[in-house]
Each structure stands twice: as structure tokens, then as C-alpha cells.
Amino acid sequence: MSSSTGSLRRYLVTRLALVIPMVLLLLTFVFGLMRVAPGNPIQAALGGHLSPAQLHVRMHAAGYDKPVVVQYGEYLRQVFTGNFGTTITDSRPVSQIITQNGAATLELTVAALFVALLVGVPLGMLAGRMRDSWVDVSARSFGIVVYAAPVFFLGFLARLVFSTYLGWLPSSSQASVLVQADLIPHSNILILDAMIDGKWGDLPDLVRHLTLPAITLGLLLAGVFVRLIRVNVIQTLRADYIEAARARGVRESRVVVRHAFRNALVPVITVVGLQVALLLSGAVLTEATFNWPGIGNELVFYLNSRDYTAVQGIITVFALVVVAVSLLIDIANAWIDPRIRYS
Amino acid sequence: MTIAGSLPSPPTGAEVLSGGPGGRRGRARRMLAPVLSAHGLQRWLLWAGIALVLLFVVLAIFAPLISPYGWNQYCAHLVRGACEGRFTRQGRPSGAHWFGTTVQAEDVLARVIYGARTAMEVVVLAVLFSTCVGIPLGLVSGYFGGTLDRVLVLIMDALFAFPYLLLAIVIAFVLQGGIGGGVLTAAVAIMAVYVPQYFRVVRNSVISVREENYVEAARTLGARPRTILGRYVFVNVIQTVPVVASLNAADAILTLAALSFLGVGVDPTAAAQWGYDVSRALSDAQAGYWWTGLYPGLAIILLVGGLTLLGEGLNDVYNPVLRRRGIRRVVLPARTWDDRAPQ
Fold this sequence. Notes:
The complex is a heterodimer of chains A (343) and B (343). Helices cover 78% and strands 0% of the residues of chain A. Chain A is mainly alpha-helical. Chain B has helices at residues 13-18, 23-36, 40-61, 63-66, 108-144, 146-161, 164-179, 183-209, 213-220, 225-237, 241-262, 274-287, 291-318; strands at residues 75-79, 82-86. In chain B, strands 1-2 form a two-stranded antiparallel ribbon. Chain B is globular and about 80 Å long. The interface between A and B is large, with 50 and 45 residues.
């Protein structure tokens, strides 16, 4: 027992040690990319709006007249103290974008993940269990179509059908204007805020706004889950212990549910972790499609106003999120599956 | 998308039988042999993929001949700079405009056809760039190993872990400030996403190939590393590339569509792009104009689907592990007295 916890601790230490070069590399990469651009960021964002003297003052204030090495050092120092800079165009701290708009992104991605699991897991299990039947063929076709269709096109179709033609659901933003005004921001996750203050009347409106974006983004992920779980179930059903259970006379339904499905679900944790990159990329597109006020939508706004600091700050945050999630997933895996610690 | 078991395939039966290089035609026939011998559903899917991709290649190459109008044409004729016979804005699909017209009175069909041209240009360049960078790096890193290998793997892993779309966005954003938003900018941005994949695939197969007997033999005979890499390793590793390339091309179409949807793709005043058209169509969806977004979106799905079918088909056909030959009936010779077990 003690040796197993010891190995887990040793694994954690090595894994944590690997995070440092990874983070440094990503930060250097983001910084390097932002600095290879010719011209300077202030000029790019505000040129034409300010006089040359004003531009110079702003450049000095932002530190763009210092040597690159000094700027790099300052960038690293700021990131490690949780300061991601202030946007050039509207002087908003990037950390504020993260707490406010990040909450909306979190709300969307969690809901989408929920949809993906709800659709993807049963569909993948059925397809694997009934291999080569019409269920399997339609589940696999679903996987291919969802992969080939850009998420923003699915969003376009969803808006067209469910919002314009059927009029069932709102097609953009996070809440109606009245509801938005009624809520007091605590966590900035509007559904949570409504619950905190007991404003249950606002919930239907919030859920209705969330439905289309969450389903659109969720379907994108569901395709990945279907493919993975289908293959896992097929492989698990061939395993010796399934044969052994059948030989013992265990009922087929019990073999499938208790023995096969359970084991086929273990790798899903890893895949959820690997899909964070896909989820974030998809979230940016979904937010832009449904005008959802998340980080992705802000990123698009600042991209189009050519605001370097804002883009750099937001991208840095995304990079840190990816590293953190992959770390968490690895730890969870090592905890569940002892083979990982020993390899 | 994982490339299941992309191992260097051992010489096929045909190769062994024909014995050594048999001129260019013989070599071409040998390389195509698995494609021609594919069976059943596998064969149909592969040919469907080839047909779809060819359709879009033809559209792209002969766009000016096929398209009824120019991609940014909004008048029937331009007489000395004056617009004559201006197209209707957001006109329904009709005899004159099969796919209808956009909010800027451009013909949707023409934009879909010219969009194929933009997509092909960018993707061909992107695949070319990323193979030219990724393959040599993978060869060198896998063959020589050591510190260089470790550093390259770390960098590539960091790039790979980063959300692919954000990586492309940042590079496109930075390059737009530098060299403007042309086809080249989009191609380079997309290249950065796929270099790590070629690097990984090539490096992994080099590592398995370099321990093979024939490489060992060449080394013993005193061949220089360049000769070994070029003549023995490269040829055996390169077979995995077409599969990866066609799957990546499918992915690259989606990435380009996403970039242009977000406004960081090719400059919309320079070329027609499907993703950009869908983004413009989002506000049309509100008013019930379905045709401006539907057709560009379908074009994306068809091309991506075609490339995916092609890639998966090639993978099935060239990968001996997945290859399914037609089942041949085994006819046993009639039993004779000699077959009987001795009494």
C-alpha cells in the first residue's frame, strides 16, 4: 500500500516538473509570435486616432520602447503575478475579460460537454454493441457528418430552423435584456447567479438562450465520443473476461452493461482531456456564431480591432488553461490506472 | 484524428513477384495495385472520395469557365465604369442565379465555385509547406536522436497541445500586420498547425525503421547517414505520408473556413471564401434568407467529407493491418486413401 502511494507521489513530482518547461515554452512562443510582427502594436491599434506625440506617450507607458529582452522579462513577471496586461483599444484589464467573459465561456463549455456525454456515450455504446447493424451505420455516419460540418455552419442551420422558422429559441446572446438587468453578478455565470439570488423566474430565459449554442458545440464533441466508445465497446466485448463471464452463465444483458460498458468508459476521461483543445477552438467559433459573450467572442472583437495586448493576453490564458487541464487529466489517470505510474 | 497503425508496409505480394524495380510504369502499377484491388464497401467509399475531390479540383481549376459570373460581380455588365443591370440583393434562387444572390448582390453559385479555388490554393500550399518542414525534421530527429530530438519533440508537443485554431489565428493575425492577408498568410498559418503531425508520424516510423536489418546492413557497408536517410529510411517512411496528407487536407479546409469565418483568413476583398460567406449569412438567417449560407456550408461539408473518405480509404488500402481482401473460397482436394490417419 505504501509503495503504491509512493509511486503516485513520484509520478506527480515528475509530471509537475515537466509543466514548467512546457509553460515557459508556450509563453515564449506567444511572446515571440507577437513580437515578430513588424511595426508596433500601439501604432497598429490606434494609428490614425491619436497624434504622433500621444502615440509616443502611449508606447512609452506600455513599455514598447524598451529592448525586447526587458519586455520579455516583464511579460513573464506579469503573467506569473496574474496580470495579463490592459487592452490598447478600450483600456480594459485582460484579467477582467477573463473573469467576466470567461464565466460565460465556462457556462457554455460545461453545458456542451454535458450534451456531448448525453448524446455520445449511449450512441457509441449502442453502435459498438450492435456492430454493423443500421444503428451502427447511422451512428458512424453521424460521426462523419459532425466532423465534416464546420461548427459555425451547424450553428447557422440551427439558428435558421429553430429560431427563424420555428421561433422556438432565441438565436443570440446569453440572456434577454430585461433578465440581464435583473441579475446581480456574483460569479458571472448567469444561471448560477440567478440561483444564488433565488430568481427562479429568470432561469427559463437563461436556459433557452443556452440551448442552441450548447447543443451545437456539444454535437461537435459527441462525434468524437461516439467513435471512441464504439471502438472501445467492440474491443472490450472480445476480451477474455467477457467470455469468462458468459461461460459462468451470467445473463447477456448483465455482461454487456456491468462488464463491457463499464470498462469501455475508462478511456473517456483521457479523451475528455485531449478534447479540451477542440472544445476551446469550437467554443471560439460557437460564441462568434451565437454572439455568446464569452472569451472567444472577445478574442474575435480584439482581433478585428488589431489589439495586440488583448490578443496576447487572451491567448496566454488559453495556453495556461490547456496546460492545467492536461496536468489534471494525467493526475486523474495515474490515480485510476496504476499502470501509468510505473511506466 | 488518429492514423491507426501507420506502419511502413512490408513489400506487397505483387512487389515480391515482379522482382525489383521494373521501370516507371511498373512502379506506378505496383503503387496503385492496392487501390485497384480494394473490395466492396471499402472500394465504393474510396471512389466516392476520389470523385468528390476531383469535382472540386475541376471547379477550382476551371472556375472562370464554369462560373456564370465573377466572384465579386454584382452587375450584368460594366459599361465604362457604370453598372448596368444590377443584380437584386438577397434574391431567391432563380433561373439567372441558381443559388440566389448575397446581400451585396453577388451570385452565390459563383462565390461557391471561386471559393473552391481559394480553398484549393491555400490547402495545397499549406500541405506542401508542412510536409517540406515536417518530414525532414522528423527524419533527422528520429534518425540521430539525442538532444536535438528531445528539444524538437518538446517543441512539437507544445505546439500540438495548443488548440489548433488559436495557433492558426495568432499566426494569421500577426502575419496580416506584416505581409497582408493573402493566400500565403493563410497557408503559413495553417502550416504551423500540421507540421507537428508530419513530424510525429515520420519520426515514429523512422525510429522503427532505423533498427531494421537492411538499414543495419547499409550502415555496416559504410554508407553515410545522408545515403541511409535518403535511400533506405525515406523511401520506407514516405508511404505513410499520402494518408496523413489527405486527412490533414480535410482538416485544413475546416481550419481555413474557421479562419475566414472569424475574419482572419484571406482578405475578403481579394478572394471568395466559404467561411466568410457563412459569417455574412448569419444575419441573413435572421431574416429567413437561407441560400446565402447553405450553399457555401454544403461545399465545405462535401469537400471535407470527400478528402476524409479518400484518406480513410487510402489508409485501409495501404495499411496491411487494416486491409481486407475479398474472401476467397478454399477448395480442398478430394480426400484420398493416403489422407486417412494410420489405423
